[in-house]
Structures
1.
Amino acid sequence: MKKLMLTAALAVLGLGSANAQADSDLVQVGVKGGINFSNLTGDDIGDTKSRTSFNAGFVAELPITERFSIQPEVLYSGQGFDIEQRDQENFLDNDDNIEAQLDYIQIPVLAKIYLFDGFNIQAGPQIGFLINEEIDNAPLDDSGDTDTDLAEDIDFSLATGVEYKFDNGFFIQARYNYGFTKVFKESDLFGDPDIHNSVFQAGIGFMF
């Protein structure tokens, strides 16, 4: 999976640099990162709590017209849910929580429409590759990890969001991702549960 992430990241960066050599005003590449609030949704999911994690990765913007661009990205995205929340005073200090961790390399390809100035809306398909799946009763420590093999390796989803991009290249954004793929594999024990990923993201980034 590390090779997959490196290959995808180089592809995004290579696409940007190849076009930038011809016309630096056409294509931009950058980095981004932010916070995830992830959970599961569907007819067969019980009362789970949102897991707080992060996302980080690479982004490129390929303008088609003055107000329309295509934006591919390669991101690490920490997802899943909290099985039990035992510390409510500080959501970042969650070492007493029990987390179900489903971590992905996500590759969205978004249509990006500028409505005015730097404000834009985004939407498009996203494919996720599962790279980590475990139950963790000590999320801020290396101990307490129990590997599981219940989730599907690939997750198809829809990403939608809004963004404001400043003239100096910095941008801020908010996004929601809904998974179309059922998260868990069909089994004799659990059947074929109707459970999907649901992730809210907020973050910042910079285009070079």
Note: The radius of gyration is 18 Å.
2.
Amino acid sequence: MHVFVTGGTGTIGSAVATELLANGHTVLALARSDKSAQALTDAGAQVLRGQLADLDVLRAGAAQSDGVISLAFGTDYSTEEAVARSVAEESAALAALGEELLGSDRPLVTVSGTPWVPGRVSTEADPVSTEGPVGGRGRSVNAVLDLASRGVRSVAVRMPRTVHIEGKGGFAGLLTEQARRTGVSGYPGDGTQRWPAVHALDAAVLFRLALESAPAGTAWHAVADEGDAVRDIATVIGRRLGLPVKPVPQENFGPFGPIFAMDQPSSSAYTREVLGWQPTHPSLLEDLENIQP
């Protein structure tokens, strides 16, 4: 396939682009800067210059592709307003991509988070949240999946709270950044809450499998580690950085504080069984050993 990818230089996107190219696909990737364009060219992808807010550019990219993987999302998580802007921008982008693909039976693969279900491990059958700081993202992904009835092979790959590579990325990466800033490897609550995780290279394989074969209107879980205790994550971070490890108020984590404090383990048993996905790369706790002091 000739695949249009947004977010192709991010933690997940760069791995996805490499995975696609290594498996016989060609890639057209959105790039908003010279640096991103050069990185994509070096990886072997074709480049379409523009930003996620350039809806005409997105439509043009989708029009010349056999399928789309949309991964781009804002990087400013400092306030609820900033997160809301990123959610709105992503929602408009997905709507534009979906419009371009209507009636074509081409795949549109997008990303969301794994659900939170009180008292148990979430599965692929559970709905994503449409409330809270990123509830708008759940609503826009649901709208994409609804396009299955309009001739789009729409698919959602649900990512865990931490997508990591070389000790960086995801919510664990935010804990590391906070620890460097404050001098404390902190965690909210008692630290027994669990976060699922996946290595970026394993996640990339699932995006390729979803693009190639997932049925329209389906959601899949890119979960390798069902749930690591946040205290254990903070402990490795603290040891690697030589910092004390202790609980801190959830307000210290800004708009993500309430999410950080939640117990949110997740399963990928159905995804593994149906799509044949098998993670092979290091777990989160193993990968965090790559953090440099």
Note: The CA atoms of residues 199 and 282 lie 7 Å apart.
